[in-house]
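Memo to structure team: turn this sequence into C-alpha cells by end of day. - J.P.
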Amino acid sequence: MDIEARIKRRQRRNGEPRLIQDYESISPVVHIEEPADRGPVLERLLDHLDPVFDGQLPPNAYVYGPRGSGKSAVITALFANLEQLPTEQQAIIHTTTRAQPPTSPSFVYVNARETASEFAFYHAVLDSLVDESVPEHGIGTETLKSRLHELVREQRTGIVIAVDHISEPESIQAPALVDLFAGLPSNVSWLAIGRDDPSTTELTRYTAESISIDRYQRQMLVDVLMTRTSNGLAQQGLDHGLARHIADWADGNAHNALAALFIAAEFAEERGQDRITQANVDAAIAEVPDPCVSLGVVLSLPTNRQAVLRELIDLEENERSSVTATTEAIASAQSVDLSAGTVKRFLYEMAESGVVDRVEATATNGQGRPPSRVEPRFPPTAFRRLYDLRE
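Reply from structure team:
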C-alpha cells in the first residue's frame, strides 16, 4: 500500500477523525505478521520443520483444518519469517553462478487458488526463487520446468514449498499436485494445506505427518478481532462486547468473523459514526451467507469474472429476476466489455464452482419451469469495498 493511500485514509472528514484508519488491518483477505493466539500451532509446525535449522529438509506433511481456522494466516506468517533467516544461515538464490551455496533450505509459499495450471504452478515457484521477474508470456511450460529443475538442483540444501488451498473448486486438486511434485528433483520437501480429512486425501500417501489446525476458540477469535481493530480502526472503534457477539456468531470461523467486522465498520463509516454499533454488527452478520464462500476465492478469480460479479451485486431487484435479465443488465454495463453470451457462461461457471447460487424464483405464470435468479454466496459489501480499493 503506498504512502499516498495511507494518508488519504487518515484525512479528516467534517472535522472528525475517520473510523476506518487502515482497511488492510481489518480486511478478511489480508494476513497479519503475527497471528493472534496461535502459539501452539506454530510450535507444532516448527517441530516438523526443525531439520531446516540444521540445514536439512523436513519430510513432507499435510496441514489440515476447517474453513476459517487460520491455516493460511499461520503458514504465510511462518514462511515469511523463515524466508528471512539470518544471512549466515541462508543466502539469496541467484540465477547466475553463486560463490557460496546457502546453508539452509529456501522457502516458497504458493497459493493454489492462483496457480491451478501446470504453467502457473511452476511459474510461481520459479518466480519466488530468483531475483529477476520471470516472464508470464513468450515462454512455455517445459522451458519453465527445465529452468526450475536446474535451479533446484543447484540449491544443494533444497527447497521447502507450502501449497495452500488444495482441492478447492478453482484450485489445484490433490492428484494434480502429486503429479506436479513428482516432476521436481528429490531435494524438494512440501507442505500441502487443505480442508479434507487426512483419511480422504491421497496426499497422505506421500507424507510423514498430518498436522491438524483446530477452529478458533471463542476467546481466541475475540483476540483476533480486537487486534485487528486496534490497528485498523479509530480508538474505541469496536466495543469488547460486540467483538464477543461476533465471535459467538462466527463459531470459530475467522474469515466470517473478520468479514462481519469489515462490513460493520463499512456501515458505520458510511453513516459518519465514530464507532461500530450493535445495529451495524447485526446488519453485517445478516449479510454474510451461510455457507459463505471465502472472499479470497472471489478475489482470486480472473479479472473479467470479478468485473461481472462487481456489476451483479449492484443490480436492482428487477434486473435480477432471472438469469437472462441479469445477463442483459451486466452485459450492457460500461465497465464490462463482454458479450451477453460470455456473461451468461461466466455466471453458469461460477454457479457450478459455488461462487454464486442459482435460486429458483417463487413467482411463476404457471407455464413451464420457473425462472432462476443469481445470488452471490459472498458478502456483497465486503467484496464491493475490497474490489474498489484495489481498482
